[in-house]
Specification:
The complex is a heterodimer of chains A (about 600) and B (about 220). With about 600 residues, chain A is an all-alpha fold. Chain A contains 14 helices and four strands. Among the domains of chain A are: about 160 residues; about 60 residues, no CATH class. The radius of gyration of chain A is 24 Å and the shape is globular. The chains are: A mainly alpha (about 600), B mainly alpha (about 220).
Chain lengths: ~600, ~220
C-alpha cells in the first residue's frame, strides 16, 4: 500500500494500536512516546551539563583546591556545558519534547503527520547525543574550544580535544541537525494540515504558535551551523583553508593560508542568534498558556501575542552581528545591528506587558506551574534589560567577554527557559503520567531554585562591571580585581552547588509521584485546551479513542466567561446556538 | 551574507506574510459558525507536498549559505580561480534530460499508464546516476591534474559544492529507488503517483540549484 500521511487519511480509519513492548515503547511512532523519549534523553544530557557547571564553579570559587580540574579539563567543561545546554537540552526538550507532545494534542489530531519520520528523528537525535558523550572518552578528551567553536583555535594545536574531540563535536552537531530537520518537517506540516475541525490558526493555543514559529526559525537557521560545521571539518581533516589563516604553530608553518575566521563567526551567529529565539519562543508560548490557565483569565491581547511571535521570528535573522561587535566591523554595520537589536525589544516588551496584564485582576492560583511562570517573568525582564545594555556597541565593547555577558545570557536564555521547562513539566505532568505530584515539594523546588539562581547571577553583573573576564581558568592577581571579587566568586559557587542539589528535590518528586502518586484528575487545572479533554488520562495511542476527533467551537482562552457556571469553557464545548457565546466585549479588545 | 539574507528574507516574508493574512481580520475570542466550519487544513494539497516544500526551504537556506560563504571567501587575496572541466557541460545536459524524463513520467503517471511509468522512472534514474558518475569523473580529472582541495580555496569550494549537490541527488535517488522497485514488482502507476510528482519537483529544484552553482563556478 502506498504510504499515506496521517493528515491525508480518512479520519475515522481504525487505528491499529501497537501490541508488543518494543513497538509500544522503544520503536514507537506514537508522538507522546517519542516526546517522552526526547524529554528523558535531553534531561539526561542536561544533568551531565549541570555537573560540568558545578565543576567549573568549584575551580572559580576555590581555585587550586581540586587536582582533577586542570586548565584543559576546565575548558572542556565550559565548552560542553554550553553546547549541551543550548542545543542538546533546550532545543531538543522544547521542540522534540514539548513540541512532539503538545502539537497533535493541542491541535486535535491523532498523531504527527509523518509518524515514521518522527520516530527516526528521535533515534538520530539519540545517535548525536551518543557521539557527543563519546567525545569525553576519546584520547585527548572533548573539545575545549568554547561553545562557539571559533577557528582558528578550535582546530589549532594547544586547544584541548583538538584531535578527536572537535571531530566528534562537529559530527554530532551535523547529526543533530539532520534529526532536527526531520522533526521540524513534522511539526510544521502537522500544524498546517492536521488540525481538527474548527481549529483555525487563531484558535490555536500560544504554546503551539511559539513552537511552530520556533521550528520555522530552526529549519532556516540550523543549516548555517551545518555549513560551518562541514567547512570546519574540511579544514581539520582535508587541510582546506576556508576559515584557517596562515599560522605558525610551535615554530612550524602550518599548511593553511588565507582563510577567514570571521566568516565562521558570521555563519555561526547566523545560526546562533535565531537559536536564542528557537529556545525562547516555545517558552513564551508555554508561559502564556500557564499564566492564562492559573489566573483564570484570557490571555491579554492574544492577537498581539501571535504577531509579536511572528515579528520576533522575522527580526531574529537580522541581528546576528551584535555578537561580533569586538570582531571588528564597519561602524555603520554596527549601527545597523544595534538598531535592529533594540527594535526586537519592542515586540518582546509587548509580550511582557501582556503577561503582566493577564495577571491583573485575574483569579490567581499560586500553584507550582504558576510560580514558575511568574518567576520566569522576573528573570526574563532582568535578562532582557541587560540585553539592552549589550545591544549598544559602545556599551558592549567594555563589557564584552566579562561576567556581565555571562550573567546576561544565563538570565535570559538559561534560567528563564529552564524555569518554563519546570513550569511546563509541573503543568502537564498530570496529563503525561496520569499521576499527581507533591505540591509542597514542588513549591520548595521553585523557591530554592528561584532565589538560588538569583544569588548566582545577580552578583555576576557586578563582577562584569569590575572587568572580571569570562572563560578564564584562574584570575591571578591584577590591579582592577579587588580581593572581594574572589569572595563573591566563592559565594556564587556555593549558590551554584545549592541550586544543583535543589534539583534533587525535583527528581525525587517526579520519580516518587510516577511510582506512587495520587491518580490525577483528567483536567486538574480546569484548562480549556484540547489536550485536557482526551477520553483517557494519560491519552492512549491515537489520542481521541474511538469516538472520533474533537471539534473546536471557540478559542483557547475562554476563562471566567460571564454567565457561564464554570470558570472555563473547553474548546470543544459547543455554544448554545453557535452564535457568539456570552462574551463580554470591550474589556480589553 | 547579503545573498543568504535575501533568500531568508524572501522565505520569511512569504511565511510571515501568509500567516499574517490568515490572522489579521479575525476576532478569535468571538465564536462564529464560520470558524467552527473550518476544516483545520490550511492548504489544499497533500501533506507530503508540504513536507517537501518545507524541506526545499531548508535546502534553499543551506545552499544560500554556501553561496554566501563562497562570495565572502572569494574576496581574500589567495583565491585562484579554477578552470572548470568541460565535462560539466555534458553533465549539465544529462541532468536536464533527467528532469525532462521525470516531467514526462509525471504526465504518464497521472494518466495511469503502468508501462510508461516503469520506463520513464528507470530512464530518469539512469540519467541521474549517469550525471553523478560524470561528476565523479570530473573530480578525478581535477585530482589527476593536481587541483586538490587543500591547494586553493576555489578548488575546495568546487568539491564541496558539487559534493553537497550530489548528496542531495543521492537522497532523491533513495525515494526514486523505492518507487521504481514498487512499479517493477507489480504496483500500479496510481499508487506511486504522488511520489513521482514529488520527485519531479525535487529534481527540477536540484537542476535549478545546479544551474546557479554551475553559473557561479564558471563566472568566478
Amino acid at each position: 500500500m502506498a504510504y499515506v500521511a496521517i493528515a491525508d487519511r480518512d479520519h475515522e480509519v481504525e487505528h491499529h494500536d501497537p501490541q508488543t513492548f518494543i513497538t509500544k515503547y522503544i520503536w514507537s511512532q506514537d508522538h507522546k512516546v517519542i516526546a517522552i523519549q526526547y524529554g528523558l534523553t535531553s534531561i539526561f544530557v542536561g544533568i551531565i551539563a549541570l555537573c560540568l557547571s558545578v565543576m567549573m564553579r568549584l575551580q572559580l570559587g576555590f581555585p587550586d583546591n581540586f587536582d582533577f580540574i586542570t586548565p584543559e579539563s576546565y575548558y572542556q567543561f565550559v565548552t560542553m556545558h554550553g553546547m549541551i545546554m543550548v542545543v542538546y537540552l533546550l532545543t531538543a526538550l522544547f521542540l522534540g519534547g514539548f513540541g512532539n507532545y503538545l502539537i497533535p494534542l493541542m491541535c486535535g489530531s491523532r498523531d504527527m503527520v509523518f509518524p515514521f519520520l518522527n520516530m527516526v528523528s528521535y533515534w538520530v537525535y539519540l545517535l548525536s547525543v551518543i557521539i557527543l558523550v563519546a567525545s569525553f572518552f576519546v584520547p585527548g578528551g572533548a573539545t575545549g574550544a568554547g561553545w562557539t567553536l571559533y577557528p582558528p583555535q578550535a582546530i589549532a594545536a594547544g586547544t584541548p580535544g583538538v584531535d578527536l574531540g572537535i571531530l566528534l563535536m562537529l559530527a554530532s552537531l551535523a547529526v543533530f541537525i539532520v534529526a532536527f530537520t526531520m522533526g521540524g518537517l513534522n511539526y510544521v506540516t502537522t500544524v498546517l494540515q492536521a488540525r481538527c475541525k474548527g481549529m483555525t490558526l487563531m484558535r490555536m493555543p500560544l504554546s503551539v504558535w511559539g513552537i511552530f514559529v520556533a521550528t520555522i526559525l530552526g529549519l532556516l537557521a540550523f543549516p548555517a551551523l551545518l555549513v560551518s560545521a562541514i567547512m570546519m571539518l574540511f579544514d581539520k581533516v582535508l587541510l582546506t583553508s576556508f576559515f584557517m589563516p596562515a599560522m605558525i604553530s610551535a615554530g612550524e608553518n602550518l599548511s593553511y593560508s588565507g582563510g577567514n575566521p570571521v566568516l565562521f563567526q558570521h555563519l555561526f551567529w547566523f545560526f546562533g542568534h535565531p537559536e536564542v529565539y528557537i529556545v525562547a519562543l516555545p517558552a513564551f508560548g508555554i508561559v502564556s498558556d500557564i499564566l492564562a490557565t492559573h489566573a483564570r483569565k484570557n490571555i491579554f491581547g492574544y492577537r498581539m501575542m501571535v504577531w509579536a511571535i511572528l515579528a520576533i521570528g522575522g527580526l531574529s535573522f537580522v541581528v546576528w552581528a551584535h555578537h561580533m561587535y569586538v570582531s571588528g566591523m564597519n561602524p555603520y554595520f554596527g549601527f545597523f545591528f544595534a538598531t535592529t537589536t533594540l527594535i526586537i525589544a519592542v515586540p518582546t516588551a509587548l509580550k511582557v506587558y501582556n503577561w503582566v496584564l493577564t495577571l491583573w485582576q485575574g483569579n490567581i492560583h499560586l500553584r507550582v506551574p504558576m510560580l514558575f511562570a511568574i518567576g520566569f517573568i522576573f528573570t526574563f525582564i532582568h535578562g532582557g534589560l541587560t540585553g539592552l545594555f549589550l545591544g549598544n556597541v559602545t556599551i558592549d565593547l567594555p563589557l564584552s567577554d566579562t561576567y556581565f555577558v555571562v550573567a546576561h545570557f544565563h538570565m535570559v536564555m538559561g534560567v528563564s527557559p529552564v524555569l518554563v521547562v519546570f513550569g511546563a513539566i509541573y503543568h502537564w505532568f498530570p496529563k503525561i503520567t496520569g499521576k499527581m505530584y507533591n505540591e509542597t515539594l514542588g513549591k520548595w523546588h521553585f523557591w530554592m531554585t528561584f532565589f538560588g539562581t538569583y544569588s548566582i547571577y545577580l552578583p555576576m553583573h557586578y563582577l562584569g562591571f569590575l572587568g572580571v573576564p569570562r572563560r578564564y581558568f584562574a584570575m591571578g592577581t591584577t590591579d582592577f580585581m579587588p580581593e572581594s571579587a574572589q569572595t563573591l566568586n566563592a559565594s556564587i559557587t556555593v549558590s551554584a552547588i545549592f541550586v544543583a542539589l535543589t534539583q534533587l528535590i525535583f527528581f525525587y518528586n517526579m520519580i516518587v509521584s510516577i511510582r506512587s502518586g495520587k491518580k490525577a484528575d483528567p483536567n486538574p487545572w480546569g484548562a480549556t485546551t484540547l489536550e485536557w479533554q482526551t477520553p483517557d488520562n494519560p491519552p492512549k495511542h491515537g489520542n481521541w479513542g474511538h469516538g472520533g476527533l474533537p471539534e473546536v467551537h471557540r478559542w483557547a482562552y475562554d476563562y471566567s466567561v460571564p454567565g457561564y457556571p464554570d470558570d472555563f469553557i473547553p474548546q470543544n464545548v459547543p455554544g448554545s446556538d453557535e452564535a457568539p457565546v456570552g462574551r463580554d466585549h470591550g474589556v480589553e479588545h | 551574507m547579503t545573498i543568504t539574507l535575501i533568500f531568508i528574507a524572501g522565505i520569511m516574508v512569504t511565511v510571515i506574510g501568509w500567516l499574517f493574512r490568515q490572522t489579521i481580520n479575525t476576532q478569535p475570542w468571538v465564536a462564529t459558525a464560520a470558524d467552527n466550519a473550518v476544516s483545520g487544513r490550511s492548504l489544499n494539497t497533500n501533506s507530503r507536498t508540504i513536507g517537501l516544500a518545507t524541506f526545499l526551504a531548508v535546502a534553499v537556506s543551506l545552499f544560500g549559505l554556501f553561496i554566501s560563504a563562497y562570495n565572502l571567501r572569494m574576496q581574500m587575496p589567495d583565491w585562484i580561480p579554477l578552470a572548470d572541466p568541460d565535462l560539466l557541460w555534458v553533465n549539465t545536459g544529462v541532468l536536464v534530460l533527467a528532469s525532462i524524463a521525470f516531467q514526462w513520467t509525471r504526465g504518464v503517471a497521472i494518466k495511469g499508464s503502468d508501462k510508461a511509468v516503469r520506463i520513464g522512472l528507470t530512464l530518469a534514474g539512469a540519467l541521474t546516476i549517469l550525471f553523478l558518475f560524470g561528476q565523479l569523473v570530473a573530480w578525478q580529472g581535477l585530482q589527476a591534474a593536481g587541483n586538490t582541495m587543500s591547494r586553493n580555496p576555489a578548488n575546495a569550494f568546487f568539491f564541496l559544492l558539487t559534493g553537497i549537490h550530489g548528496l542531495h541527488l543521492l537522497g532523491g535517488l533513495w525515494v526514486w529507488a523505492r518507487s521504481t522497485i514498487k512499479v517493477w514488482t507489480g504496483a500500479d502507476a496510481t499508487s506511486i503517483r504522488v511520489s513521482v510528482e514529488l520527485c519531479t519537483i525535487y529534481w527540477h529544484f536540484l537542476l535549478l540549484v545546479w544551474a546557479v552553482l554551475f553559473g557561479m563556478l564558471l563566472s568566478t
